[in-house]
Amino acid sequence: MMARRGIERLRESIGASGLTIYDAIPRGDEGLWLDSESLEVLVENGLVGLSLKGLPLRTRSKAVKEAVCRALGYPVPSSFARTRPRFPGQDFDTYVQKANNLQIWNEEVVADRRYVVIGVTREDVVDRIRVVDGHLLASLDRTGTLTQKYQARYERQRGTREKRLVDTRVVAGLLGRGLAIGSAEPTDDPVPGEVLPIQQVLERLGRLVGRSFADTGAGSDRARGSALHEIVSRELGYARYHDAGSFPDMKNQLLEVKLQTSPTIDLGLVRPDSTDPLEMKKIGGRQIRHCDVRYAVFGARLREGEVELLAVDVVTGEEFFELFPQFQGKVVNRKLQIPLPGDFFDA
Question: Are residues 292 and 170 in contact, defined by beta-carbon separation less than 8 angstroms?
Fold first, then answer.
């Protein structure tokens, strides 16, 4: 995250720009766009301690939106338009939560939209803020109500691939020579000249094929996935493992990791080959898109309390469906209730 003084300068720039919350700002604009961490800091600075006691629901909603405007440096409009999202200029919605049950009505979860979740105490005083994106919200759903998703068919690849394994043109300008990763963490932003070429990612992760690890996640694909992420981190050369629950799993290397013990690859809310930008600041002057992300897809089997890795394929989002055929159809459930974990605001 940028230094707090840098965040305050962004707030001052927004205030001096004359823009409203409805004026679009390109993602990654270094002068006016707030990344999610900066957005969280400013909203926290402006809202924690705000009392909503005794306010009717509509009045409370308006009071929160007015406070958010002031926190970010925007003028407070005389009335708030019924836009989706409510703050289109910075692409986010606000939700005030007294209970751990996030309700999204009459619209789908949008993968790269930000959701500013505002926690209040029993006395209706704002005390916690967290900013998450649609990818993370989708991963929290345990009810089956969130049914909008893309899927593909997993088949172990055999023989030589017809196309040479290359990164997209956007990522090609960020590649290094494949030296040690150094002090970076998996969730850090990519650094120009320190992104491993996709061929080297495949070579390093290929060494994991044939290995097994304890199936600590019996009945939980999430726990198995976390265990694999830690192993992949070590193999790539990271000294520490950290998982922020965001997309892609290893932002520092623009790498998403999939563990397949079944034929269905769950891809979430966005097609891997989408050219929409990621919620990420520009890297080396380049805007990273979904299709630029590299996917490491591990085929595995469960036996005798262990997960055995049988194969791994690495592919860009741009070419994902050339390797793994897409299942057709996408379902949207319009009434969503997502239970938030007890440590949601502590993550």
Answer: yes
Asked whether 335 and 238 are in contact (CB, 8 A), the reply is no
Q: Would you call the peptide bond into 85 cis, given omega within 30 degrees of 0 as the criterion?
A: yes
Say if residue 159's pLDDT is above 60. no
How does strand 306-316 pair with strand 255-260?
unpaired
* Model pLDDT for residues 173-212, shown as the tens digit of each residue: 999 876 667 678 898 889 999 899 999 999 999 999 999 9
Distance CA 137, CA 146 (A): 10
Q: What is residue 146's predicted lDDT score, i.e. its pLDDT?
A: 55
Q: Taking the complete model, does pTM exceed 0.70, yes or no? A: no
pLDDT in tens, 78-101: 999 989 899 999 999 999 988 888
The ranges assigned to domains in the chain are 4-148+332-346, 150-323
For the chain, the average pLDDT equals: 86
Bridge partner list, 306: 214, 303
Structure-block tokens of residue 43: 């909203």
Residue of 97, 153, 170, 155 whose CA lies nearest to 128? 97
- At a CB cut-off of 8 Å and minimum separation 6, what does 8 contact? none
* Alpha helices in 160-272, H assignment, sequence order: 169-172, 198-206, 221-236
Residue 342 DSSP class: T
The residue written with tokens 């055929």 in the block is 325
